[in-house]
Specification:
Helices cover 17% and strands 41% of the residues. By secondary structure, it is of the alpha+beta class.
Length: 124
């Protein structure tokens, strides 16, 4: 099966919370991250197309470590986990996410070029 991804994904393991109507899923482990979305491991009571609110907690000192908050939509459910596409986030979160992808990318120049075409409007 060919790789249809248009955005660089980086291996990134951290804790993620996903909130959906009627569900608050806490301390999920992420597998990878891009500026378009996140993949969280495990089976979850979500459905494709469902709107969610995602909180990505970065490792480090509690008070000084940024917490990224994004609105998203469940893109895909697999036996391994759930893919969530980001649909909006504030500009500060977008900047942190961009830096995470660039710092962890195998080809930072390629990843940087992808940011020239936003996956969504970061100001929404």
């Amino acid at each position: 099966m060919p790789n249809r991804r248009r955005r660089t994904r980086v291996d990134f393991h951290t804790l993620v919370d996903v909130q959906a109507p009627g569900a608050l899923l806490r301390n999920l482990e992420s597998r990878d991250l891009s500026h378009k979305g996140v993949f969280v491991l495990g089976q979850h009571p979500l459905t494709e197309g469902q709107e969610v609110f995602v909180t990505v907690r970065l490792h480090g000192e509690e008070e000084s470590t940024p917490v990224l908050r994004m609105e998203g939509k469940v893109a895909r459910l697999t036996a391994e986990g759930t893919a969530i596409d980001f649909v909006s986030m504030d500009p500060d979160t977008y900047l942190h996410l961009r830096n995470l992808v660039l710092l962890n990318a195998e080809d930072p120049d390629q990843a940087e070029a992808e940011f020239a075409t936003p996956a969504f409007d970061p100001g929404e």
